[in-house]
Design brief:
Blueprint: E1 2-3, E2 14-18, H1 19-32, H2 39-54, E3 76-78, H3 79-106, H4 116-134, H5 142-146
C-alpha cells in the first residue's frame, strides 16, 4: 500500500496496488494457510470480485476517464476499494479451495477445512454485504469541497 501525501483536500489517498500485486500478496498468505490454489486462480477471483464491485459503485480509475477501462490484473485499486472487495475475494478463494478439497475426497483423500456448502454460504453473505459497503465513499468535508473551484 502506498500512502499518498495530502493534496490539500484533507483526504489523502491510499493506493492498495494493482490487482496482480494484491492477488500475489494474498496468494502468499493462502500458501501459508495450506491452500492449494494457483496464483492464476487467485488473480481470476480478484478480477471477478472487482467486476462485482464495479457493478455496485464507480471505481476511482473511472472518474474523469474518457476511454474504456478493462478490469484486468493491471488495474490499480485504492485502499477503500480493496477493503470493500477483500471480504468477497477472500470467501471466493475459500469456495475454490473447498471445491478442490472436496474433489480430492472423491479420490480417497482426507478432507480438511470448510465444506463447499459452508464456503458458498459465507461467499453469499459477503456478496450481500458488498452493495451496502460499496455505497460508502471516502470521507470528505463540505468545507474543503467548497474550496475546489
Amino acid at each position: 500500500m502506498q500512502l499518498l501525501p495530502d493534496d490539500g483536500t484533507q483526504n489523502p489517498k491510499v493506493i492498495a496496488g494493482s490487482i496482480a500485486e494484491l492477488a500475489k500478496l494474498y496468494f502468499q498468505k493462502l500458501q501459508i494457510k495450506g491452500y492449494s490454489l494457483l496464483l492464476e486462480d487467485v488473480t481470476a477471483a480478484l478480477v471477478e470480485e472487482t467486476k462485482r464491485y464495479a457493478g455496485n459503485a464507480t471505481l476511482t480509475c473511472q472518474r474523469g476517464s474518457t476511454s474504456i477501462i478493462t478490469i484486468s490484473p493491471d488495474l490499480i485499486l485504492e485502499g477503500f476499494e480493496w477493503v470493500i472487495i477483500e471480504p468477497c475475494f477472500s470467501t471466493n478463494c475459500d469456495v475454490i479451495q473447498a471445491q478442490l478439497v472436496e474433489a480430492s475426497r472423491s479420490m480417497g483423500g482426507d478432507g480438511f477445512g470448510m465444506t463447499v456448502s459452508e464456503a458458498e454460504q459465507n461467499h453469499k453473505d459477503a456478496k450481500e454485504q458488498m452493495p451496502k459497503l460499496a455505497f460508502v465513499s471516502p470521507p470528505f468535508s463540505f468545507k474543503t469541497m467548497g474550496e475546489r473551484d
